[in-house]
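Usage example:
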Amino acid sequence: MEPAVVARDLTKVYPTSTTGARALSGVSLSIPAGQVYGLIGRNGAGKTTFVRIGATQLMPTSGSMTVLGDDVVKDAGRVRQRIACVPQESRPLYFLNVDQLIYLYLKLRGMDRAEARRRTDAVLEELGLSAVGKQLVNQLSGGMRRRAMVAMVLASDAEVLYLDEPTTGLDPLARREVWGAIRRASQEHRTVLLTTHYLDEADALSARLALLEGGQVRLEGTPHDLRARVRHPYRVTVEGVLGLSELQSYGEVSEVSGGHLVFARESSARDLAIYALGKGARVSMGPVSLEDIFLQVVGRSIEEDGEGVATES
Amino acid sequence: MSHYRTDLKLQDLLVASPVEAPVYVAGLALSELMYSLPAMGLFVVLLALYTSVSLGGALTIGLVLLLVWAFASALGFTLATYFQDVRETFAISPLISIGLTVLPPVYYPITYLPGWIQPFAYLSPTTYAADLLHSAVGLGNLSLTAAATDWGVLIAFTIGLLLLASIKARWREP
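Running the assembly step on the lines above writes:
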């Protein structure tokens, strides 16, 4: 299958940067068509910069990027016909109601009235917004407004959707509704490039993932690939009698509430589990989570702010 | 326009779509015009009550306002694409306001200004618009040459600012 988005040696230095810091540094990615592709990383890792270049909102400093075969710099007009984007921290026009907001966006994209009407009604239903369809946007909660933004883009006929942290501020139920809509978009063979801070979200939705840190791709592949590629692909939680020194020979150990967490290779994890059970400890074992992978690769939690380029907002 | 771009990210939303910059600017300019309609309506009523405007005068008023609306929108859009935060407009807006409404003879005849300031007023396109409007409502008489000059300069400013917008406004950020 042809990739939908291809970035080659993409580099971005913001003109306003006084230090010449690279927001992106030689990023090469190939994003398959018709799938959800997750872009994860801390604040300032370069996720939004990558999305903004792909969405033709920002010029790259060097390197190239194509969307459905068209260059984002030279053929921006053609690219724009086929993409849609929910920008990070974007807010809807407050003087419209939700229905008008979505309908207007579709009309602006050149859709005919009947189709715009049909898609507006469908997306309102799909994202649980029908009850507030006639309410002014400024009367809605922050989460509802965010959902309205996502609805606009999902209702479009764009083949490539850029969703830059689309579920920030949503409650768990609303997040699930947006997840469902994103999954349906990929079932319709649309490509979704999703940036998110929520690693469970990236894990649940993405067919492939790229982990960005300091403007570079540190890890890329399917969630299964990512687990296979880290040094310690298994996690063992041991609660009970075993001390730190006994556990260190099996892998990387950290203290957690009530016990220890050990990241280990498969055989070591199995040996540890058998040994700990024999000593009467409570043990749970499984493959590492995306959060664990992030911690192993980056050395810090995703919640910790990066040294990112300040102009990336 | 800066608020729509930096706070709502409306420009980013529409850049990543088939919408083109002139449509975006025209849309925002029209929406801003909506807010001005009540005041414009009031001025029309006052004009009808206290002055006698000929058909030519009414046409002049309409055309001049159209040109002012066009160049102000082009200027506003161009500047808005350079601001990173809406608060930056707080510093620039008063300066533009002085240049476009206080310095030019919008609220008074240009002869009221000190002699050394008058040449600066002619650097602003609003001066020529105000001259034409004053004449249209009977607040001054313009010779044919002066009227032609005013029209010429006003149109040139409008074309210049529209060109500036098309060349220098940043639909996509560098």
